[in-house]
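User: Run a structure prediction on this.
Assistant: Running it now.
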Amino acid sequence: FYILEKLEDFVAVVCQWVWSSAEPHHSDEELLPQALHPWRSQGKGMVRVKRDWIIPPIRVSENSKQVPEDLVQIKSDKIFTGEVIYKLEGPGVDQEPKNLFEIDDKTGVIRSKRPLDREKHNSFTLKAFALSPSGERLENPTTIEIVVLDQNDNRPAFAQSQFVGTVSEFSVPGTSVMSVLATDADDPMTENAALSYSIIGQESIPANAVTKTMFGINNQTGAIYTRDVGLDREVVKGFRLKLQVADMGGMGLTSEGVAIIHVSDINNHAPQFSPASYSMTAVENRYDYEIGRVNVTDRDDEGTRNWEAQYSISNNADGHFSISTDPTTNQGILTVVKPLDYEAQSEHILTLTVENLSPLSNKAPNLPLSTAKVVVTVVNENEAPHFREEPIQIVVLESVLPGTLLKSNFAFDPDNSDLRYEIIRDPERWLEINRDTGDITARRSFNMRSPHVKNNIYTAVVKVTDAGGVSATATVAITLKETNDFPPQLFPLSGSVCKGSSSSGLVLTAVDEDLPPQAAPFFFEIPDDLSVNWTVVQVNSTHSVLQPVVELEAGEYAVTVLVSDSGSPALGAYAQVNVTVCSCDSFGDCKSVAGTLLGSSVGINFLALIIIMASIALLLLLLLLAVALTSCGRRHHIKKGTGLLVGESEDDIRDNVFNYDEQGGGEEDENAFNIDLLWNPHDAPSTPGSFYPGSGIPRGKQPLRKDAPHNLPSPTYPRRPPADPTDIEDYINDGLEAADNDPNVPPYDTALIYDYEGEGSLAGSLSSIASGSSDEDQDYDYLNDWGPRFQKLANMYDPR
């Protein structure tokens, strides 16, 4: 390569010399630069422009062992005017990967420092600079392209260590099986990466099952295909192929690989019964259990749909049997799904057929389906008695007569043995049963209103036992039909009707203890010979209206009404209805209170009402008399000389003393009597808050009476109450007269409000105490008898 580059330089110098010979103005100093930089022509006339370096791409072979190796030399035309220093920059120099190239800064020779690897870096782009000793650029930098040439230094490699494919058995030659792939790291544009595939070995699984070459491969694409017939999965399960790939079109470096090809199964074998006949036994009256299994053989691949069997029974009209497949063993499982009856049929002969889940291939032999014969023998056992119906249904009237036959022949024994009958549940004890024949009869009449009758059905349980001790039970459902046992009862039996109103009437209905259809609809009528002034108008199936047919006077009327039900036979009852004809207000109500009471549903007549009112009046009179006698007795029980506060009472007098909030400072508090009612406005104080609370009268001002002269002396009040309580009236009148004439007390029309102190006390009112009398005139010794609560008060009035 170095010789070729020097030759190119020589050719360039010669061409430049020929060109410069045609231009006499050029000096000899320009010949060398012209070898690297030809003149550029711009338009008409040859004008010299600044010259640039022109260097073709430099090709360097990878993995070269001649290192360091000179690649190219560059020169600047400034060498004739002064010293030039060359520098090189770019990947491989001062950029990653570093230290692959260098330049001689004096001569401009570029050389490689280490072997290159095209698979890592296939080219490098560098920039060269011509600098003055001071570092100044003498010319523009030039680009140097270095291309790394490929060598066949990489082997081809398969993409997988082992390739796996599948081909169906009996495939025709040329059937595509699979494709393999290999890669080469060398330059794909060269022969170094041109790959060629081949099969260099074949092994059958199992070994030596097939010896001829069964597969080929496309040497360019790696597609594997069948080359011959004879792929039978029952003979050979698969193949192991040894592959090879080589570059340089098969002449270069090589690598090996493996391909595993499995031969897949097709359904070319029909299942076959082995053996073809079976004998089994089954117990009667049992079901959902296995009685036996049948076997088949199939040469297809086990566990696939080509191998799995599907069974069917061709003569199973009654549906007593079914057959299923065991997924593990592929056996047919024969099962009884419907109870067998030994007495009806003691032996069953079944025909079974079998086939695969997948349809047979067209390459399979054309054979009929395999069949097998199964003989099932039924084993007899002692069966329980059977009932002809379950539950046993009986429909009877509730008023059935005792001894009536209700049901017979409702059970039988399949083994024709004798049966015993009994009733094990009969909560009302309405039934009887014959132990030998099983006839069910009524012991007594039924009752629809029994709590054991639900929705008109009474339930009992019977038990039947055969000679072998095997028993069975059944429910007896007796549907009771209602009979007409009770007549309807009219309601209400009293009411009122407005006088003179054609639309007014008494609404009647009826109550029947029977159930439909023995109850409603009800029919109402008035016998012709009992009343001619009244009529009954039917409203609906349960109600009617009782109305007068003529205008009647106000008063009480008794009307007889007949009500009948719809039973069979119909029952009826007469009832007397008390009707009050009265004048009504605008709301349709009677104006007379007495008439209203008499017309109420209570049904009270006028005589009873008078008796009740007289009794109440008598009780009130007796009560008033008792109160009067009690009051008189109280006054006569007060002892003379003991004061008004003491009387003969069994109750403690302290029970009648009430505690109130403090209203003053005792007897020395004279302001308590200065009730401010009238005052002179001219004497009003100027200071706010100087008034008696709630009165508006200034404090300290005595109220003035305008109905009496001022500053007159007060009259003398009676100071001692009379000893005899009968003189208390005179005592009170004297005090009242003195108060009316006293100008220094509040006016006579002042309202004085006292606290309520209860009633029933024999001590009388506290207002009767003569507070103005002297302490010597009053005997307070009785205070010592009132207990510790009044001890302090007794000590205050103790004469000692």
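The longest helix spans residues 606-636.
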